[in-house]
Amino acid sequence: MAEIGTDIGIAKALLEEAQVVAIPTETVYGLAANALSIPAVTRIFTVKNRPQFDPLIVHVPNLARVHEYAEEVPDTLHALAEQFWPGPLTLLLKKRAVIPDLVTSGLDTVGIRCPDHALTRQLLETLSFPLAAPSANPFGYVSPVTPQHVNDQLGDRIPYILDGGPCRVGIESTIVGVENGQTTIYRMGGLSLEDIERVVGPVHVQAHSSSNPKAPGQLKSHYAPGKRLILGTIEELLQQYPAHRAALLTFQADFNSPYQFILSPTGSLTEAAQQLFTALRAFDKMPVDFILAELVPDEGLGRAINDRLRRAAAVD
Ligand code: TXA
Ligand code: MG
Question: How far apart are CA 252 and CA 172, in angstroms?
């Protein structure tokens, strides 16, 4: 199992030797390596068992550093970064040659974000290179939001997990770019559509085009938990599926089942986002065959939660 600790010096030394280290962010834990080193980035793909056509996000300590890795920052994206960084926002920008093609899967854009977590920002500030970091889970599985989640799945493949406690947001960053002059959201995430539109006006949402997955995170079944998840109205689902073989995932409702997870008894979408991936992992350990789940209100962080639920339910 990996060593779990809060020592930035250990993390720094490993990263400088082209090793991978799990790092905390406000969204989910990342599997980090030197973004400018091909051997280091190759290790990320190997440890995650991730196909090389799925590009990585590059993490920087501040907005000023972006100019070293991206050619230009369109005005709307600059405004978003000024408003929301550090925070759960990834920008797709035209990449400079210093970023290896391996990081971007050969695309001419690079995803860049400044994460909002004190330990990881300190680490980024002491390093002379940015960190490429996908979520720290095996490819195709739910993202980790605690050090223990990382250790459960990748502990025997990585030397160190930087312990920053449970993730505050609990759902991955929102990915935003500009396409044909239009500000475009490619992945709903921890920064809401409403917050983004308050700063830059109406944006285009292209988060579900499975025909042409610009972000392979858009592959429909990308967030698959270990068990079949069925979406609907819980009362109706309970008439179709044998209750003793099903776990229930609800927003607020209590069905008094031994195998249920209530995302937020008080109806908070912020809390529901924090709890979502912990819930999906908890079901894996329950003696049930299905997860019967309901959507949450489709507003604010609810859009990102529903996006993950729909993908977890997709069978293809
Ligand atoms: O919150 C997050 O974004 C977390 C933390 C660790 O920062 N990271 C994360 O990384 O979720 P990952 O690799 O699990 O998901 C990143 C998504 C992938 O679906 C990838 O396809 C997309 O971002 N992506 C990265 N660079 C891209 C690019 N240049 N063009 C299009 N999509 C890109
Ligand atoms: Mg991921």
Answer: 22
Helix (H/G/I), strand (E/B), else coil: 125: helix
Does the pTM exceed 0.85? yes
Q: What is the largest CA-CA distance in the chain?
A: 58
User: Is the C-beta atom of 217 inside 6 A of ligand 1?
Assistant: yes
How far apart, in whole angstroms, are the C-alpha atoms of residue 249 and residue 154?
26
Contact of 238 with 133, CB cutoff 8 Å: no
Query: pLDDT tens across 54-78, in order?
Result: 999 999 999 999 999 999 999 999 9
Instruction: For residue 41, give the amino acid letter.
Output: V
- 306 touches ligand 1 (CB under 6 Å): no
Phi and psi at residue 118, to the nearest 5°: -55, -45
Classify the C-alpha dihedral 146-296-229-308 as positive or negative: negative
Cis amide bond preceding 216, omega within 30: no
C-alpha angle with apex 51: 49 to 57, nearest 5 degrees? Answer: 95
Cα separation, 33 vs 44, whole angstroms:
7
Is the bond into 88 cis (omega within 30 degrees of 0)? no
- C-alpha to C-alpha distances, 18 to 41, 57, 126, 159, nearest whole angstrom: 8, 17, 15, 12
Question: What value, to the nearest 5°, has the Cα angle with vertex 143 and ends 290 and 300?
Answer: 90
Where does the pLDDT of residue 14 fall: very low under 50, low under 70, confident under 90, or very high at 90 and above?
very high
Q: Which among 126, 313, 302, 284 has a CA at the least distance from the CA of 222?
A: 313
Residues 17 and 34: their CA atoms lie apart, in Å, by 9
For the CA of 214, the nearest atom of ligand 1: 31
Query: What atom in ligand 1 is closest to the CA of residue 59?
Result: 7
Q: What is residue 49's DSSP assignment?
A: T
